[in-house]
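Re-running dolichol kinase to confirm reproducibility after the cluster update. Everything else is unchanged from the original entry.
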Amino acid sequence: MDVQFDPISSSVISAASIGTTWIVLSSVWNKRSLRPHSSAAFYANFLFAATVAYIWVAHRLSIPYVNVIPFLFDYVITGGKARHCLLLFWLICLSASVIFMIAAANQTQEITTVHRKFFHLTVSLIAVAGLQYDPQLTTLAVVLVACAFACIECIRSLQVQPFAGWLDGACIVFLDEQDSHSLILTPFYLLVGVFSPLFLSPAATASQVTLKHFAGVATVGVGDSMAAICGRRFGRTKWPGSRKSVEGSLALVVSQSIALLLAIHLLKKYELLTFGYFCYILLGAFVCAIVEGVCRSADNIILPFVGYWFLR
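Result of re-run:
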C-alpha cells in the first residue's frame, strides 16, 4: 500500500529527528569522553538543535520564520470534533501517567510490576484511539514523544540542572532488570513495542489501518502486561531456567487473543472472524508466549514483531 503523509507531518518528523539525533550524539560524546559537563553547555546545544529544526521546518514548508509555531498549532487543532476529542483523550491519558508517576515516587511501599504496567495501559489507550481516528497524527505524536524521551533521558543521565534531581527521583523507583541508573530505556521499549507496527506499515488515514497495526497493543499493551500481573499473582510453575511462569504465559495467550478479537470488531473486519483465522491468532499468541517466557530482556520490542508477522 502506497502511503503518503502530508508535507507538514513529514517536515516536523524529519526536523525533530535531526535535532534529537544531534542532542543524543553530543550527549553520548560528552559521556564517553569523560569531560566535565555543564548544564549551560547542554542548554546551548539544545538551543542550537531546536533552532536548526525550526529553520528546517520553515524551509521545507516555505513559510516565514515568525509563522512556524502558529502554523503548526493550527495544523494540530484543525480537524474537526473528532481530532479535538482525540487530543483531549490523549491529554487525559498523559495527565494520568504523570500524576501516577508523581504519586508512586512519593509513596513508601515498593514499586511492583503492577505499578509499572499502568503505563502500558495509558499508552495502549492512546494507541487504540489514535489508530481508530487519526493514524497520521498518531505517527507524528509518537515521533515527538520519542524525541522528548530522548532529551529527558539525556538531561537525567548527564545530571543537567535543575531538572536532573527531580527526574532521578521520579524515574529510579520504576527501574527494573532491563535498566541501569546510568541509562533508562524502558520508556523507549514500551513506545517502540506498542507503535512499531505503525512504522512497519505506515497508515495516513483510518481506512488504511489493519489488524497488523494492533499487534503492538495486543502483545505488549495487553498480553505482556497480563502475563506479568497474573504471573506475579498466580504464578506457581516456572519455566526452566526462568523467573517467568506458565500461568503468566497462559494469561498472555488468552488476553492477547481476546484483544485481537476486539480489534477485529473495532475495525469491523468481520470477514476475519473465521475458525481458521482464529486458530492463526491463537498460534501467534502461543508463539508470543514462548518468546516472552524465554526472553530475559527487550521482550517489549521482540513481541510486536512476532505478533505482526502472524496478522494481516
